[in-house]
Amino acid sequence: MTQRWSSLRSRALAVVPGPAALLTCLAILGPDVTSSGRVIVAVAAGTLVAAAAGLWALQPWRRRLALWETRLRDARQRLESADRDTGDGDLGRVVAALRIPELTPDEALEDAVADLAAALEDEERLRSRREQRAAEVSGALQAGRDLSATDVQGSLARMPELLDDMDRGVRSVRDACDTVLQQAIASGELAQMSWDNVRIGRDTCGRAARQVEDLDERIDGFTKLVRRLEARSREIGQVLLVLNDITEQTNLLALNAAIIAAQAGEKGQGFGVVADEMRNLSERASSSTKETEILARTLQDDVTKAVQGMGDASGTVKKLRGALSEAQDTGALLTDLGRKNVDATRNAVDGAEKQAAEARDLSGKLREVRAERDRLREMDRDVLAPMQSGLAQAMDLVEELWKLGAVRESLRARLSTAMEAIRNHRGRDLQEREELERQIRGVKDSGRAWTSAREADRERDDVVRNLAREIESLATVSPDR
Prior knowledge:
The protein is 92% helix and 0% strand.
């Protein structure tokens, strides 16, 4: 394009000597030329001067066109760089960062709760038996004041069986609590991993959204530049129309000058030579103007196509930014739900630890009762004192049994609440997963549309390169052609 403008400028400079030659001939002929001939020569000279000035005025536009061409090239490089940053146009990295882990923590916790519920049912049956036998022991001890030493020894002989049953029940509850505790800890670790993955996906989606927003702003700026280039190309077309009119007027003046030279005879031969030179210069200016007009129209069409392509790309980027924003909001919601799930799992772990501690404490008390029973067996005297001590221990044991029942009911209520919360949370997670998958599909579709738009931009870039090569080839054409 630079070579072409240099050629046009040289042609304009070649036109400038024409008016000078006309004025020189007019001065040489002097009074031999009629007044109408003088007017024709003056008008022709002014016309050629105006044409040369118009072509010279187009020189600043050459620098502007070169600047716009540089900006378009820079814009294309920035778009390609942004395309590489977003994963070659398909957003595969963003979508891969949004993987949703399976809900294994909830399933593991639900299985643990089911195991604990089964253990509690077994403990319920054992507790019924313990309460029945504890009632028998309590009645026997209340009537111990009227019993003889032989009866007291018989009651003490039945205590080992009762204590063994209680010990088995306590061990069963303790083992169930330990199992629930281990599974709850594993569930908490899995929930923490799930929460971390969702948070990472949300952060990745946020970075992609910011990159797309920056790309949208750059595309808007490039679109404005291309639109200004389109307006300047229209102005060039108007200037070319004026030059065409000037060229046509010059042809008419050259024809009139030739007619006057023919009428003047031998005295008008020099004037005829000037008229022929004017006609040749006019034809050369007309040819250059037509070529410039063709180039301006081609440039205007390409700029219009570029504006349309930029508009389509901007619309696609805006849709993509909206989809990423929705995905980011969904990721934030999932992060909040994951945090709540982690908190609930930690609370369940704390509750299981407390229940395990209570079971271990109850097991220690049973060992103390067994030790007291062994001490009573060794006593041969003071039957009443051991009986009263045994009565107090039995009453404490009954009280512990009732406490164990209350703890069991409290644990069952907590587990029921936890199971209901897990079911509700799983339902919400399934709904959020379906919504996120739908949004991810939308993001993939937008990514494919964006890839298609980028392919169209590359095709337009190829057209612009071909046009530039054609312009360079036209610039190498000789002025005679």
